[in-house]
Amino acid sequence: MMQQRHDGEAAPAPSRRLPRRPGQIALTLVVALSLGAAACSSGSSYNKATAGADINTAYKTVFNLANPTLDPKIAAIQDGSKIKASFNAALTSSLAKSSAGAKLDSYTILSSSGCSAASVPSPCAKVVYDIDGPTGTAILPNSKGYAVYLNGKWLVAKATICGLLGLFYTAAGKTGSPAGC
User: 82 in helix, strand or coil?
Assistant: First the structure.
């Protein structure tokens, strides 16, 4: 608020200072830094020590197509409910029945810009994996895909599944994209 001086000019209002103690200043600084860090964080922190094992578990769950149980597979896929019908249709193929799981060969956690470039949400990982047959031999070696960390879990990226569902569609003589992709 400005106060009027006698000469017609506006004068600054007197400042009111609150007494400050060193402990209050330090506490205020810590709180401000904590809030700032929380605001910049995506809230999606994952355990770096278990990321590889968690990604491997998601891939093994999804690609154990010899086990026809659908719900655990859908739960391990990003937006799994949206592609459930297409995924279920693919499970009936003889090719799907020859898959007994997957083995993670390698993974690389990508930066946010790397995830954006791959059209997957961040945090994400680029994954190299093998789809294994019933004897444990790779029937689709060195496959490339993505995993995404959502709601506290690593999931197989929808883009990875949609790419494979597209192969099933082509093999079945269908055109277009699988439902949900």
Answer: helix
